[in-house]
Amino acid sequence: MRVGFALKVEDIASFYGVKYEKISFRDAKSRWGSCSARKNLSFSSRLVGAPKSVIEYVVIHEICHLRELNHSHRFWAHVATLIPAYKESEAWLKENGRLLFLY
Ligand SMILES: [Zn+2]
After folding, report:
1. What's residue 93's pLDDT?
2. pLDDT at position 2, please?
């Protein structure tokens, strides 16, 4: 799964012309993904249980942080251009996210 996931991140990043340093996976319980100032992306391995559209949203969310390292209006506007329906994925994570931590 991790290989597939990493390939997906690579795909999306090159599609949008963004560069990152490296990707890592953690069994993170508090966050789905993160992006450091050094352009290292990290994702929760729990995401594997989420629908594809949600995984894509989390990946794109972190990729947008490569350009905008905050949650400003500009950041969200950028996310919305890439995924117009991103709020559905946000809602899914809010509602079902904790189920991913049960197993
Ligand atoms: Zn964020």
Report:
1. 93
2. 67
- Average pLDDT, integer, range 30-50: 88
Pick the CATH number of 2-101 from 3.40.190.10, 3.30.1360.120, 3.30.2010.10, 3.40.50.1820: 3.30.2010.10
> Residue written as tokens 């993904």?
33
Say how many Å lie between the CA of residue 11 and the centre of ligand 1: 20
Secondary structure (3-state) at 29:
coil
pLDDT in tens, 4-34: 777 778 888 888 888 899 988 888 777 899 9
Residue 34 Cα to ligand 1 midpoint, Å, equals 7
Instruction: Map out the domains of the chain as residue ranges.
Output: 2-101
